[in-house]
Specification:
Elements lengths: L1 H27 L4 H8 L4 H7 L2 E8 L5 E8 L4 E9 L4 E10 L5 E13 L15 H7 L2 H6 L3 E14 L8 E12 L5 E12 L1
Antiparallel strand pairs: 1-2, 1-8, 2-3, 3-4, 4-5, 5-6, 6-7, 7-8
Amino acid sequence: MHGRWIPLHCFMLALTFSLASHAAILVRDGSRVGSSSRAQSSSDGLELRKKRRVAVGTSVAGPLGVVGLNLELNFNPRWSVMAGYGTGFEYQSYNFQFKRVLAGEYLLPYMSAGLARWYTAQPGNRPVNSELQPSFLYERFISQYEKDTGEFSEILIYPGFGLQYVQLTGDWAGVSIYGELLLLIDVEDLQTAPTATLGLLYYF
């Protein structure tokens, strides 16, 4: 399973950088330097989110398990929705998340709320390994019956708070990195686990 998912994650990371690199090359085109540079630049993060309504990227840890692919759609400069698909190698995951940007120029603090599902896609044929990642999934969320059968489906809700850096000008305008603190809550038994995620997004 590891061999199947790591290349997918690397592909998405490469795609994100490829989109940003392509934009940078266009801006450097000699006949377009002045006008393209102005069109690509933004005075602050909210203006960037107004100009560029879609972002794609990748993340590690957090609501998608171990690694994930993400899509963000901006309704307006402050509100957006994110959707993701990920894996913990022994299971798959997806999530939907609302995001509210508070303020900022290069650094944008934001709040979020979302829902995620972590589940085994194939019928279990062996017990769940105690080395399952993240560790709190095995320790707090999975019942003993699920551990024994090797099958589980966990519905999680969470609030979050994050800080996002966005590149506003230059060849790499639109590239963004973020960190987010989350509190995952298992809907079935209300067990909780604090966690964090790191991610990369490119807005275009």
